[in-house]
Amino acid sequence: MEKDHRTAVTRSAHYFIAATNHDVTDESPKPRLGVSKTSAGTLKLTGMEGLVEESIDRKKCISQLWYRATNTRRKKYARRGKESVIDEGFVSTETVCDWMDEYPVTNEETHFAVVMDPKEGQIVWIKRYLEPVVHD
Q1: Which residues contact 96 (CB under 8 A, 6 or more apart)?
Q2: For residues 80 and 20, what is the distance between their CA atoms, to the nearest angstrom?
């Protein structure tokens, strides 16, 4: 769930959801019915435009890592004649946690990162960044 109790957007999935520092409505040029999209002018006025753009890029990055990893596994399973249904073994929790510490998923403005198990509804990894993250 994002935002607040009046305009929250709830998303669900069995295996993977990425969330960063922006609302899903900021990703689409078309606002959802009943939800007002933040105007580009407002983002510029408040200094949030760069933060939202960067947040969208970070979400795309972690999502691409997931999809590349799962597609590679699907192809391997398909070549072996096995069903290509994703299961929780396709990408390990350890791998996802490693991705969380990579640039641009974390950057100099990162305060915390978390990985949750969508099936159990539990936090499986959390890290707080007291100092700005510096990547080589």
Answers
A1: 66, 115, 125
A2: 36
In whole angstroms, give the CA distance from residue 67 to residue 83. 17
Query: CA torsion sign, 14 to 18 to 22 to 26?
Result: negative
Stated as kind and residue range, the H or E segment containing 44 is helix 40-46
- What's the pLDDT tens digit per position in 46-93? 777 888 889 999 999 999 999 888 887 777 766 776 654 545 457 888
Is 116 within 8 Å of 93 (Cβ atoms)?
no
DSSP type of residue 72? H
In contact, 10 and 1? CB cutoff 8 Å: yes
Closest CA to 3 of 27, 21, 17, 15: 21
Q: C-alpha 37: how far from its chain's center?
A: 20
How far apart, in whole angstroms, are the C-alpha atoms of residue 61 and residue 54? 10
pTM over 0.70: yes
Helices 93-100 & 49-79 angle (0-180, nearest 10): 150
- CA-to-CA distance for 45 and 66, rounded, in angstroms? 34
